[in-house]
Write a structure and sequence with these properties.
With 119 residues, the chain is mainly beta. 0% of the residues lie in helices and 48% in strands. It has strands at residues 3-7, 10-12, 18-25, 34-39, 46-51, 58-60, 68-73, 78-83, 92-98, 108-109, 113-117. Strands 2, 4, 5, 6, 9, 10 and 11 form a seven-stranded mixed beta sheet that branches.
Length: 119
């Protein structure tokens, strides 16, 4: 049974930073491309960032480039999303997603963690 468990969301002021984490089980994590999505109120879920199996290659949505950083620790079966210079419009539920040996879109989802950016 595949489980993706996110943590680290919360309330932060504009300009602040936050790191969310996702621990995976039930998959061969080091063989799995991982991603972070988000869904803001009233909007479609969007891909924020993804990272290849070894962590050397990353991709970001234009809206977060230069502010967010995805990373992974294969020894801990964990993927992270570091978020800096947060904006009000970054407010969303952030979801961890597991894909395949290559990126084929999300196959498994976490339950999500709320990130709220407000003064």
């Amino acid at each position: 049974q595949v489980q993706l468990v996110e943590s680290g969301g919360g309330l932060v002021q504009p300009g602040g930073s936050l790191r969310v984490s996702c621990v995976a089980s039930g998959i061969i994590f080091s063989n799995t491309v991982m991603g972070w999505y988000r869904r803001a109120p009233g909007k479609e879920r969007e891909l924020v960032a993804r990272i290849d199996r070894g962590g050397a290659s990353t991709n970001y949505a234009d809206s977060v480039k230069g502010r967010f950083a995805i990373s992974r620790d294969n020894a801990k079966n964990t993927v992270y999303l570091r978020m800096d210079s947060l904006k009000v419009e970054d407010t969303a539920v952030y979801y961890c997603a597991a894909s395949g040996f290559t990126w084929i879109g999300p196959r498994y989802w976490g339950q999500g963690t709320q990130v709220t950016v407000a003064a």
